[in-house]
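Aim 2 progress. For tRNA modification GTPase MnmE, the working sequence is reproduced below.
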Amino acid sequence: MPSGQTQPDAPIFALASGAGRAAIAVMRLTGTGCGEILRHLCGTLPAPRRATLHGLRHASGDAPPILLDRALVLWFPGPNSYTGEDSAELHLHAGPAVITAVADALVALGARPAEPGEFTRRAFMNGRLDLIEAEGIADLIDAETEAQRRQALEQADGTLSRLYDDWATRLRTTLAHQEALIDFPDEDLPPEIEQALLDELRALTREMRAHLDDGGRGERLRRGLLFAIVGVPNVGKSSLLNTLAERDVAIVSPRAGTTRDAIEVRVVLGDVPVTLIDTAGLRETEDEIEAEGVRRALFHVKQADCVIGMFDGDTPPADLPANVILVRNKIDLVPTTKAPHGAIAISVHDGTGLAQLTEILADRARALTAAQAGPPLTRARHRAAIEESASHLAAALDMHWPEMRGEEMRLAMRALGRLTGAIGVEDLLDTVFGQFCIGK
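Predicted structure tokens for this construct:
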């Protein structure tokens, strides 16, 4: 339960619109007593789900009521609201003094400021959405690109939940058949029942394994990709970073070893968020600071989804992984009709080949996050639960004792239940809803 919360349905409020100068600020309110608070502020309870203009008034102590603002007010009686509780929205003028005055009035009337994600947490607790849909809403709020928006909206709309609910329903039916075989061993049940049961377990296991075998595409798109730019000193790594970022992020100098730490910048390539990392030049050095930069560069090579290996001669960097894109820079100084070793020939100085390189990088980003058949996994928590469920189903198939097989099937059901929030998720709730902004 969030800190400071005394009642699970106590009235809470939060500013749902963003901070900063704006014309309108939206204050959300939900919980038991929300209607009485609204009646006090407006003088009457507005018609449900209709935007109406009201003067918001509040009396402090024995003083007569004062006008706080003229606002559009929406009243959503529960359970037909986002949280499932009585809820309201106040569309205020967005001046800081107005927002503060209305917030003070709400506190005086018994409401309290909401914790991060508390509105969505209440929606979950009241059965308005499951845990996976709630995570989809969090991802939708954080979406930077159109591809992320589509993936998050699909999850928030329940596409993943429907897949997992279908698995749970089928497993529940199969478990019921298994229990019948355990409870009525002397009833001469048709052997086809056990064979159908085993076939369904095999089918579920195959489907879960296929779902897991997605190359992490959904998780990559959700968090964004990591592209590391590596090479020996002075091959143009920092210049390429600045060019792709379209601003001066890294210091460019003819002096070798200028970049000693990893410099990161967020860009969008192929509608996918990508963090570009400019690394220290790879070389042997006795300078302990530069040596630490080289060590960090090698670390980023191991972590990267894609490595951009830069060089300016005929020999590309050595010992690079299979996910490398080789880039031969400075062809304006050493003209060539074809880059050696299958590398892309560019000149950061005069722009030659940069459009081609940018499109190749965008293609790589799209390929790493391309959607496959069925909704993608988006979080490590989902992957762990499905792996656990699939492992228990595989163990059930190996069991000859009906009671042991049934126990493995129950454990698989529990893993799926934790995934959607049906059972055993209390320890996860603070972590999941703590990712939300205030007001959601």
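The first helix runs from residue 34 to 42. This observation will guide construct design in the next reporting period.
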